[in-house]
Design a protein that fits this description.
76% helix; globular; mainly alpha
């Protein structure tokens, strides 16, 4: 008789997953609401605003360092929680500066004080994201048995996907039309919600270790040597390229999607904030469906799922370019929904492969590397989206062509990712680092 997999504590995983509810409320304030206000309502060029959003990712190597430190240097017997809180507290405390930035730049778009404050705020926020992001994934991985680790991360990811559209709806209702006083009120509400869920999710999430685990008894190499060893592996390098181009292509519209609704279709702040609900609903539907369909697959068997997700994300982006060129408001919301459908499939596939491409003994460092890759190149994509939009607008004088060009380039990048992931030997990496694990994206199997 084959050995039965260890059970996964669903209640504990669900509790930890609420952490991402807080994440969605803080991220949407910085990546969605403020960008819309600065670009569309205050008529500031998209390039400096996109660069502002991307600045927080320039210190991305901090994520690898934080993962390495959490593996090797526990604080009070805790490997993960001290580092997560060291990142999340600065993120929360930086949020009240967002309305101040909007106030200063509304008075003078060239205000040195406004831009300096904006740069400092986004760097503080970014450092907090980088320190805590990969370590939180390692915490989720630690709390599940080896054969259920991917399932745990998939469950937690669902919270992020579901809460983003919910946060978009709430923020859209709170501020249908921009005014500074309402923005202050909305920011304080977002802070309170985020802090509450962070505290709830992390309380008791990790127990102090009184003795080292088997992995901890193995001597860890110095940080720089560890990075060289990781990078020397060919599948790791190829997977890095896939994640890098995928993040760049999938998030180039991040800073300009809501301004696109405002400048091409004349939609209000409340209407464009709900864009997150439209594509988020598509993500939720495809996420759950993909989990059910692929519940019997192992993590390294999700290359096909990832390819389908990449194509399913690229085609709606190309269609969104057509929507921009034709100014077809009728097709706008359905296209955003279909974009979410493809993105949800891509997310499940990529998460599964990310878990498969993580060596057990150095989980914190590997997950730190993958988190850093996604964050850094998400920042590159955000900046390039704003830069290309401005470049095309200067060249053509047309908002429709400017935004359409960004969407078309994103589609091309995601299609190139199909070729990249096909050439990554994920099963070979798994065989060389640990025993094959069951599927990373199987919520249904976790509930069996």
């Amino acid at each position: 008789m084959s050995e039965q997999p260890s059970p996964l504590s669903i209640p504990r995983t669900l509790k930890i997953g609420t952490f991402h509810i807080g994440s969605s409320f803080v991220d949407l304030l910085t990546s969605g609401v403020l960008n819309r206000i600065l670009i569309s309502d205050l008529n500031i060029w998209a390039t400096p605003v996109a660069l502002l959003s991307a600045l927080r990712y320039l210190l991305a190597p901090l994520g690898i360092w934080a993962g390495y430190r959490s593996d090797t240097h526990p604080i009070g017997g805790l490997h993960r929680l001290p580092y997560i809180w060291a990142g999340r507290l600065p993120m929360i405390l930086s949020l009240p500066l967002l309305p101040v930035i909007a106030m200063l730049l509304a008075a003078d778009p060239r205000s040195p004080l406004g831009w300096i404050l904006a740069i400092c705020t986004f760097l503080i926020y970014g450092v907090g994201t980088l320190i805590s992001g990969g370590v939180f994934l390692a915490l989720v991985r630690d709390t599940a048995p080896p054969e259920r680790q991917g399932q745990a991360i998939s469950i937690v990811q669902i919270f992020l996907v579901v809460s983003f559209p919910v946060a978009g709806i709430i923020y859209g209702q709170l501020m249908p039309v921009y005014d500074l006083e309402t923005f202050w009120y909305m920011t304080l509400i977002g802070m309170t919600i985020a802090a509450t869920f962070f505290l709830f999710a992390l309380t008791g999430a990790e127990r102090p270790r009184t003795r080292p685990t088997v992995d901890e008894t193995v001597e860890q190499p110095p940080f720089t040597k560890l990075l060289r060893e990781i990078w020397a592996d060919r599948p790791t390098r190829r997977f890095f390229l896939f994640l890098a181009l995928g993040a760049t292509s999938a998030f180039a519209q991040d800073a300009i999607l809501e301004p696109f609704g405002g400048q091409v279709f004349g939609l209000s702040v409340g209407e464009t904030t709900r864009f997150n609900a439209y594509w988020g609903l598509g993500v939720l539907v495809s996420l759950v469906a993909t989990i059910i369909i692929t519940r019997r697959r192992q993590a390294h068997e999700q290359v096909g799922t990832t390819v389908i997700g990449l194509i399913g994300t690229a085609l709606p982006l190309a269609l969104l370019g057509v929507v921009a060129l034709t100014e077809s408001r009728l097709l706008l919301i359905p296209t955003l929904f279909f974009f979410g459908l493809g993105f949800g499939i891509y997310t499940i596939g990529a998460i599964s492969l990310l878990i498969a491409m993580t060596a057990d003994r150095r989980a914190g460092a590997y997950l730190g590397l993958w988190s850093v890759t996604q964050l850094l190149f998400r920042g590159v994509g955000i900046f390039l989206g704003g830069f290309v939009r401005d470049l095309l607008f200067v060249a053509t004088g047309s908002y429709t062509i400017a935004y359409a060009g960004v969407f078309f380039l994103e589609a091309v990048g995601l299609l190139v990712c199909v070729l990249l992931i096909i050439n990554v030997d994920v099963p070979g990496f798994v065989r060389g680092t640990r025993q094959v694990q069951p599927a990373a994206s199987t919520l249904m199997a976790a509930l069996d």
